[in-house]
Design a protein that fits this description.
The chain is α/β, with parallel strands linked by helices and 535 residues long. It has 4 domains: 220 residues, HUPs (Rossmann fold, 3-Layer(aba) Sandwich), CATH 3.40.50.620; 73 residues, no CATH class; 54 residues; 82 residues, Arc Repressor Mutant, subunit A (Orthogonal Bundle). The protein is built from 24 helices and 13 strands. The strands form 5 sheets. Strands 3-2-1-9 form a 4-stranded parallel beta sheet. Strands 5-6-7 form a 3-stranded antiparallel beta sheet, with no helix packed on it. A two-stranded antiparallel ribbon has the order 4-8. A hairpin with a 4-residue loop joins β5 and β6.
C-alpha cells in the first residue's frame, strides 16, 4: 500500500527552493540551457570500465545521475535521456583477481575487452559478460537508460565525425596532455591508439605521420617494424581515454556527467580537449570515493569492498539506494556492517515522511530512494528495526525465518497475515545476515560479581512486570537496575548486557528487544548466562 501523493502535490515554489544536492545539480544544468538549442535533447551520461566485474560504485554513479535527471525534469519539464556508456574497447591491462581461468586470461593482455574470451563462458567476450551483469542489475532497479558500447560506437561510425575533429586538432591536443606525462611517455604519446590488424591488440605506439586530408595515421608495427597506415575512423583505432572522454562528450552531446574525486585532473584535461574541438564540456561534480573495511579505495580488479549481489543478499534494495544517496562528497566505508544501519535509517525516514510538509518531504532521503516519486513511499509503519531482528536471530540462533516470525506474531499479532513484503524481506535477510556475518563472530563472556548481582535484580524486576508491559516500561527498569548497581556510565551497563547475553559488543535498545523477545524468554536467557551455558 502506498500514499496517495503525486508529484503535483509539490508546488513549483517548493521545487525551486529545494536545496538537496540533486536539485542543486539540476539547477546547474538549467543555467547551461541558455547555451543550447531549444530543441536539443538534454543528455546525461555515466561511464563504466568493464575491465572487471561491476561493483557498487558503478551502480552508485547511475543512481545518483538518475536523481539529478529526475530533479531536472521536475524543474523544467524538458526531455532528456541517460546514457550508460561502457568503455569495452579498452585493452585488458591486467587480469582481475576475482575471476576464473587466470592463466589463460593472461594471454589476452592488450586485447580489446570485447575480444577477450569470457572466463565464465556465458557470453561471447569478457566485456560483454560484464556489460550484461551491469545491465541486469540496473534493470532490477527499473532505471530508465540507454546502453552504449564503445566497440559498437567506434565500429558503426557514430564517432567518425568527432574523430576527424580530433585528428584536425592533433598537435594542439598533444600539447594539452604532454605536460602531464613523464619524460618517457611523452616520447610515444598519441591521442590515437591503433588496433593491430594482425594481432588484434590495442597498440600504444608513436605515430609517424598524420594525414588530415585522408583521415589516416601511420605508425611502425612493433612486431615486424613495418610501417602501417590506417584510417582513424570505422573502428580501426581508438582514443587514449582522456581524449576519448572528450570525444564522447562531443559525439553524444553530453550535458551532464559526474565523476569520482580521483578523476578531477582527468575531467579538467578532457574539458580542455573538448573545448579545443569546439564543444562545451558537460556540467557535473566530483563525488568522494567508497572505501573497503581497511579504508582502501574499492576496485573492480581487486574485488574488495562489497559487490552489488552481496549487499542485496543481506539488505533490501531500498537500503542500498539510501546509502548511495546521502553525502556524495563524503568518503564512505562500504562494508557489511553499514547495511543494518542503512536499513534502519531508511525505515525512520519513511515513517517521518507521512507527517512532513512539502519542504520537509523534499529534504527527506527516502523520497530520493524512490526516485523522487512520493506515490512510491511505503505507507506501512514498520516498527521493528532491522537491527532488532538481527539481535533476535542472534539470541534464537535462528536458521529459519519462521522462528523470527513466531516472536513477531506475539509482539504484533497479525503482522505476517498482512503480507507486508518489506517486513517479510527483512526477516528473511536478517536470518542470512546473522548466520553469515554475526554467528561466526559471536563471543560470550561470564559476568563479574557486580554484573551477576545486577542481572539477578533485572530478572527479579522483570518478574514483577506485566506481560503486556510496554518497551518504555521495560527500558526504565533496565536503566534503574544499572543506576542502582553503580555503573558510572550506563553505556557500560548496556555493553555488559550485550556481551553477556548476546555475545557481541553492540546491541539493540533493551526495552524494545525484551518486548519483542518476551519477558519470560529474557529471564531464561539471564539464567543461562549466570550458569555459564551461553559461554
Amino acid at each position: 500500500m502506498t500514499t496517495n501523493l503525486k508529484i503535483d502535490d509539490f508546488s513549483k515554489l517548493a521545487l525551486e527552493k529545494c536545496n538537496t544536492w540533486p536539485f542543486q545539480e539540476a539547477k546547474k544544468i538549467i543555467n547551461r540551457l541558455k547555451y543550447l538549442p531549444e530543441d536539443k535533447l538534454v543528455v546525461f551520461e555515466t561511464g563504466y570500465g568493464p575491465s572487471g566485474l561491476p561493483h557498487i560504485g558503478t551502480f552508485c554513479e547511475v543512481f545518483r545521475t538518475n536523481l539529478v535527471r529526475k530533479a531536472f525534469t521536475l524543474l523544467t519539464g524538458r526531455s532528456s535521456k541517460l546514457i550508460c556508456f561502457s568503455d569495452d574497447m579498452d585493452g585488458l591491462r591486467k587480469v582481475p583477481s576475482n575471476i576464473p581461468n587466470q592463466e589463460s586470461m593472461s594471454n589476452y593482455i592488450g586485447h580489446p575487452l570485447t575480444k577477450v574470451p569470457d572466463p565464465f563462458q556465458t557470453h561471447p567476450s569478457f566485456g560483454e559478460h560484464n556489460n550484461s551483469r551491469l545491465k541486469s542489475f540496473l534493470d532490477s532497479f527499473d532505471f530508465e537508460y540507454e546502453f552504449y558500447s564503445a566497440t559498437d560506437c567506434y565500429k558503426s561510425g557514430l564517432f567518425d565525425k568527432t574523430l576527424i575533429k580530433v585528428l584536425d586538432n592533433y598537435e594542439k591536443i598533444k600539447q594539452i596532455i604532454l605536460p602531464t606525462l613523464g619524460e618517457e611517455r611523452r616520447k610515444t604519446y598519441s591521442p590515437f591508439l591503433p588496433i593491430c590488424q594482425k594481432t588484434g591488440k590495442v597498440l600504444e605506439v608513436s605515430i609517424n605521420e598524420i594525414n588530415k586530408k585522408n583521415g589516416t595515421i601511420t605508425y611502425t608495427d612493433p612486431a615486424d617494424n613495418q610501417k602501417v597506415t590506417i584510417s582513424v575512423t570505422g573502428g580501426k583505432c581508438k582514443l587514449q581515454w582522456k581524449c576519448d572522454w572528450a570525444m564522447r562528450w562531443d559525439a553524444l552531446g553530453v550535458d551532464y556527467e559526474m565523476a569520482g574525486k580521483d578523476l578531477i585532473d582527468s575531467v579538467s584535461l578532457s574539458s580542455k580537449i573538448n573545448k579545443q574541438i569546439g564543444s562545451r564540456p558537460p556540467e557535473g561534480f566530483n563525488y568522494e570515493l567508497f572505501l573497503d573495511q581497511n579504508g582502501e579505495k574499492i576496485s573492480k580488479s581487486k574485488g574488495n569492498g562489497l559487490t552489488i549481489e552481496e549487499w542485496l543478499s543481506y539488505g533490501p534494495q531500498e537500503s542500498l539506494s539510501y546509502f548511495m544517496y546521502g553525502h556524495p562528497k563524503r568518503a564512505k566505508r562500504l562494508y557489511f556492517d553499514v547495511i543494518p544501519k542503512s536499513v534502519d535509517e531508511y525505515l525512520t525516514q519513511i515513517k517521518n515522511f507521512i507527517s512532513q510538509s512539502d519542504e520537509e518531504r523534499l529534504n527527506n532521503p527516502s523520497l530520493y530512494v524512490h526516485n523522487i516519486q512520493p506515490s512510491e513511499i511505503p505507507k506501512e509503519n514498520i516498527t521493528i528495526p532491522f537491527s532488532l531482528l538481527l539481535n533476535l536471530a542472534s539470541v534464537c540462533h535462528a536458521e529459519d525465518p519462521e522462528i523470527i516470525w513466531g516472536f513477531i506474531e506475539k509482539y504484533a499479532p497479525g503482522a505476517k497475515s498482512k503480507k507486508n513484503k518489506f517486513l517479510e524481506n527483512m526477516v528473511n535477510l536478517s536470518v542470512v545476515y546473522f548466520n553469515d556475518m554475526i554467528k561466526p563472530n559471536k563471543k560470550y563472556r561470564l559476568p563479574d560479581d557486580n554484573e551477576t548481582k545486577a542481572l539477578k535484580e533485572l530478572s527479579t524486576g522483570l518478574t514483577k512486570l506485566e506481560k503486556s508491559s510496554s518497551s518504555e516500561e521495560i527500558q526504565k527498569l533496565v536503566f534503574s537496575i544499572g543506576k542502582e548497581n553503580n555503573f558510572e556510565n550506563l553505556r557500560d551497563w548496556f555493553k555488559s548486557l550485550y556481551e553477556i547475553l548476546l555475545g557481541q559488543s553492540e546491541g539493540p535498545r533493551m526495552g524494545s528487544f525484551i518486548s519483542l523477545y518476551g519477558i519470560e524468554e529474557t529471564k531464561s536467557l539471564i539464567d543461562d548466562a549466570l550458569l555459564g551455558k551461553l559461554k
